[in-house]
Amino acid sequence: MALNKIPPPIPDKLQNLIFAFRESQALFAAYELGIFDLLHDSKTLLSAEDIAAKINADSDATARLMDTLVALELLEKTQEYATSWLYSNTKIASQFLTKSSPDSVGGYITHSTKLVYPLFGNLQSAVREGSTQWMNTFGMSSEDMWKSSYHNEEARLRFLGAMHSTSRHTCHAVATAFDLSNFHSCCDLGGGTGAMAYTLCQYYPNMKITVCDLQSVVESAHHFQPTPEECLNQANVSYVVGDFFQTDLPKAELYVLQRILHDWSADKIDSILTNVFTCLPSGGGLLIAEMFLSDDKRGPKRTLLQSLNMPVLTSGKERTAAEYKEILKKHGFEDIQTKKLQDSAGLDATLCRKP
Ligand SMILES: C[S@@+](CC[C@H](N)C(=O)[O-])C[C@H]1O[C@@H](n2cnc3c(N)ncnc32)[C@H](O)[C@@H]1O
């Protein structure tokens, strides 16, 4: 039989996109099931049956998940006898996906599993309605994202764990983007677990740093405090309960806003920057860490995907360096310098001064 038109093959790019969420879910499931930890802690290589027995799971499904993880280059497998395969972690899995590793990004994986993935399930509604999806997804108020994010201790520690597990990797690039050695006092507004403060105090031993955040966050911060060996000058770091929408910010020569402005609508950003400008002394600085979109907003891809977080989760968005400059100029800041950073998981830096 002659065919009039042979259907074209489905482009690889499209198939990969359709399957992309399965890759993320394979990673999330393996992390939450503790597969990377079991392989890491075991003195010997383990079979899928060994793992299934330890996590009390179906051995055939476990074997399929583990083979998928081999294809995703998170596990390796070797054949012991003709029929028996033994698994181990790749270097990346050992370093970044095991709970005992100081470099673990597990906090961000759990945050993605429990919060971001379900919220993204309602992206269509977010786009149609132009509003966040807390109510549709979890039956929780979208009015105050922080009340919803911190609705109980488990949720609060999970959110802070996510921020901490990524901040640890990005703060060094941000702290060293500009020479901050002329500032002797600094306040990290919305500084969360203090990851940025503990990084700054290592590079600038003469700087006293105050982490300012909501009461429940300040009360939880001790969970994330580094040991004296991990951070030498930690006596220079202190915590204070505060609200960046109030005008009585802790006094400082330098304010830091890392991953804050992207959470808020334009009028809320105006209110934060007005308070910062008012509280800064003349010559004082503001260091901002956010991801920059390219001028034509064609990329970077991860920044665009992060900006999609915003309609489902918060009322903010990601911006170009020029847009940040414009906002800062409008508030009276001068000497505005922006820098694209490397090794900062996409975060870029801006430094400006009050004249
Ligand atoms: C996206 S997290 C960023 C945390 C930290 N800067 C980092 O990069 O890891 C936003 C932070 O802002 C804090 N926050 C929210 N509303 C606040 C307010 N009104 N005043 C002070 N901090 C606030 C949150 O508790 C959270 O720690």
Automatic annotation (TrEMBL):
This protein's UniProt keywords: Methyltransferase, S-adenosyl-L-methionine, Transferase
Alphabetical list of Pfam families matching this protein: Dimerisation, Methyltransf_2
Top-tier EC class: transferase
Occurrences of domain O-methyltransferase C-terminal (ranges): 120-334
Tagged with keyword Repeat: no
EC number assigned by the record: 2.1.1.4
Residues annotated as signal peptide: none
Keyword S-adenosyl-L-methionine listed: yes
Superkingdom in the source lineage: Eukaryota
Domain O-methyltransferase dimerisation: 16-98
Cross-referenced InterPro entries: COMT-like, COMT_C, COMT_dimerisation, SAM-dependent_MTases_sf, WH-like_DNA-bd_sf, WH_DNA-bd_sf
PANTHER family: O-METHYLTRANSFERASE CICE, PUTATIVE (AFU_ORTHOLOGUE AFUA_4G14580)-RELATED
Chain's role: Catalyzes the transfer of a methyl group onto N-acetylserotonin, producing melatonin (N-acetyl-5-methoxytryptamine).
Protein name: Acetylserotonin O-methyltransferase
